[in-house]
Amino acid sequence: MKNRNLPRLAGGVMVAGMLLPTTSSYAADAEQIIRDNCLLCHSEENASAPQFSRMSHQRKTPEGWLMTIARMQLMHGLKITDEERRTLVKYFADRQGLAPEETAGSRYAMERRLNTMESFESADFEQMCARCHSGARVALQRRPAQEWEKLVHFHLGQWPSLEYQAMARDRDWFDIALEKMVPELTSSYPLQSSAWESWKAAPKADLAGRWSFSGQLPGKGDLHGTMTVVAKQGDRYEVSVDGQYADGSPIKGSGRAIVYTGYEWRADLTIDGVKVRQVFAASKSGQQLTGRMFEAVHDEVGADIVAVREGSAPMLLDVQPEYIRAGSRAQLTLVGTGLGEQVSLGDGLQVVKELYRDDNKVVVEVMADAGASEGARQVSAGSANGASVNVFSSIDQVKVVPEFAVGRVGGNGGSTPKYNAQFQAEAWANGPDGKAGTEDDWRIGFVPASWHVEPFDERAKADRDTEFAGVMDARTGKFTTGAAGPNPERKMSTNNAGNLKVVAAVKEGSETLTADGQLIVTVQRWNNPPLP
Amino acid sequence: MNNKNKLRCLAKRSFSMLGFSAALVGAAVSYSASAAAQGPALKAGQEYMVVASYPNQLHVIDAEKDSLYKSCDMPGRFGPGAIQVAPDHKTAYVLNNGYEDIYGVNMDTCEVTFHAKMSQASNERTKTLYAFALSYDGKELYTVQNPTILRSDHYEVQPTRLAVYDTSAGLKAKPIRTFPSPRLVTAMQVGKDGGLYMAGADIYKMDVHTGEYEVAVPSRNWQRERYVQPDVLNVWAVQTPTEDFTILYTTARFQEGSEDLNTADWLYGYFNINLATGETTTQDFAPITEIYFTGTRSPKDSNIMYGVLNRLAKYDIEKQELLGVAELDHSYYCITPNNDGSKVYLAGTYNHVAVYDADTLAHLKTITLPGGDMSTTTAQVFIR
């Protein structure tokens, strides 16, 4: 099966390079594609509106529909063009998508945050479903009982070894799946919902305009800029991005976007020569976008992004950097839209000089009093507010973020690229009690650190994992994993896996504060669909 | 054992499938041109070992010289290459073609003399997960089949079934009897009394004429005070010289008066059925310090247990004491002793059969097969 990939499916729902019909005709086109290509196996049902077996009785995200249709291509001989596939994904995601409320809590899967630690109340759900794939993949679907039941049959029919695996062979997997999980899933994720009914009826915003955005790219730092969005036919847009990182380096690029289900923004852009994707959700009002922008090939490299549309109510998205040391002078960049003249930073902080101003961005030089009290200050610029800045007197402790990460070997002529790891050092203050690890500790923000790795344990030391598993960039905290494949230099020719302690060192006055996290470098994720 | 830890990491998930998926991933190492499909007939009284490997061959190894004796090309595609040798030691039955077909290969001539397709209907896709065995006289072949009906727009997983074949039925063998079977059956062997031992949630014994079965050795449902439910997965039904059907288990035993897994003893043990006598055993033999895919007892000293995956280990069962280990050049899945118990053969993964001295665990030889990876083949030793 591994050679039967549709190569461009890997990263997400594709929008690039398409010429699609207008909104008014694409539904008819999609239904014609279904009638021409799908009815050898599926059947058209007797209903007032066009309705087809299986496919008309489920709701999914754009990525979910893409995976389903791609599976029909990979496993069941469906032959359609890429353009036809795009038409179908759009058709299904619009007609049978998920309401914004229904994707809340599971967006990390669409946003390709593969190091997310999932947690579900139902132990059965975790063990029966989320044992092999993300729970989010399930939580982002809606089906009636008959369709959940067919999904169980599909799973065991397609992967007969499934019930023999650990945490399946200890129980009557098939019986539990049918008798317990089908009712549970039907109740948790039903086809009919008031959220969907009301979202279907709600007006959908046109997302054209200029957007002010801010974000943070681990390893690189804060970023902000503007995104210009020009409407094309059929919920499609042309996008250009113009911004900068905190170090002044530019973020420039352009591409195309499509909006599914009235709010699911997906863009394929080329920024500074690198192909990137945006997976954003538009707010119901259509005035804000939130999500993640990540590299298409290395989706572990990505920034959390929030954007507000110019012309909407004044709003402050971010203050960059997010902290200032008491007794110091520093530049702060306020990012948002409709930023007013009067910049207020709260007690103990004074604007010394305004260095730059436009409607979306104000740069000020700020003096923090030596005696300024520690803690967050709500910041405003005129009537724009919603962001804060942290005032601290000293960094008391450092944490490695993420505390635990998984990287994967790759490259080396193989089909799968490396999956690298990125760490950040997070500064914390001990709070009024002066003790670390207590409730009143508070987060200052991400700070520069110097990085290295050590063997996590004796086993890792004996196997010399630090020599093989990859290389840590001392300045950026980016760990580049080792090459894929058996390594004859290693014991038993094993691959370049490793169990590493990730150490951050932060200078604070004459002291060096250290913290550590854990990085497992393991084998490739061979099966890497849009939803993990 | 319930996993109480609710925090899960997407990227860590592959660990939860360790054990089975690891065993099923058989990456081909390299494909070289196949050796002669034909070769000399086997010699009476001579000891041989048989294994299967990519691209799709059955290899007979001379177990005295420890060298390749001959290779036979097989039909279909390779996988998993699980093998049972007929009691007359002329025919090797191989589960192949993506778990969907069983072929009987005459080892003297390389001729395929038997073929049974597990699927019984054109819209049925049926896999056998290693679950096949021959009757004590070799006249019947037993398989547990996992069928799925492929409807036009959905699948219907069917109940598992035992299908019985006449081994003289030739290349279009059809079941002569079928019975409902428990799910989850993997390795199977037949006792001298004709009963079919099926390793599933428990080890069952089935009457192959009536389909009735009972628990011969409780596994999931064992009642051992202070022990948790054991974990068992064995896809290697090794036909041992002592006629022992041996399956490893792992378990935990709580301390007296405690139900805390953190302080429990984690143990390896084995289930054994002596196929000649029907005697059954459930016996711990070691603390868990590493994983073994297969274990086998010495034919010359039943108190000695060997285990293999990343190391070859040797245990005193009674004392539950590690007697020695051999470091290996790579993982091996399947361990098989020779008939006099002087050597153990390690097979599975790569195309290397490693030969070790059973007493000293000294490495004697590595036989390199002409093809690729052996995947989860069953290495079987026999005297013609």
Shape category of chain B: globular
Largest sheet composition of chain B: 6 strands, antiparallel
* Structure class of chain A: alpha+beta
Radius of gyration of chain A: 25 Å
Number of strand segments of chain B? 30
User: Oligomeric status of the shown chains?
Assistant: heterodimer
Mean pLDDT over the full residue set of chain B: 91
> What global shape of chain A is seen?
globular
Q: How far apart lie the N and C ends of chain B? A: 45 Å
Distance from N terminus to C terminus of chain A (CA atoms, Å) equals 18 Å
Largest interface: A-B, 51 and 46 residues
Helix content of chain B: under 10%
- Summarize model confidence as the mean pLDDT of chain A: 95
The amount of beta strand of chain B, in percent, is 35-45%
Number of strands of chain A: 29
Can you give the helix content of chain A as a percent range?
10-25%
Number of helices of chain A: 12
Beta fraction of the residues of chain A? Answer: 35-45%
- Unreliable runs of chain A: 16-21
Question: Could you explain the architecture of this structure?
Answer:
The complex is a heterodimer of chains A (532) and B (384). With 532 residues, chain A is an alpha+beta fold. Helix content of chain A is 21%, strand content 36%. Chain A folds into 4 domains: 7-198, no CATH class; 209-303, Beta Barrel (Lipocalin), CATH 2.40.128.120; 315-392, Sandwich (Immunoglobulin-like), CATH 2.60.40; 397-522, Immunoglobulin-like. In chain A, the strands form 7 sheets. Chain A has an 8-stranded antiparallel beta barrel. Chain A has a 4-stranded antiparallel sheet with strand order 12-14-17-16, with no helix packed on it. The longest helix of chain A has 16 residues, at 173-188. The two termini of chain A are 18 Å apart. By secondary structure, chain B is an all-beta fold. Chain B is built from 1 helix and 30 strands. In chain B, strands 9, 10, 11, 12, 13 and 14 form a 6-stranded antiparallel sheet that branches. Chain B has a 4-stranded antiparallel sheet with strand order 4-3-2-30, with no helix packed on it. The termini of chain B are far apart. The interface between A and B is large, with 51 and 46 residues. Strand 2 of chain A pairs antiparallel with strand 1 of chain B. Chain A: Pfam families: Dehyd-heme_bind, Qn_am_d_aII, Qn_am_d_aIII, Qn_am_d_aIV.
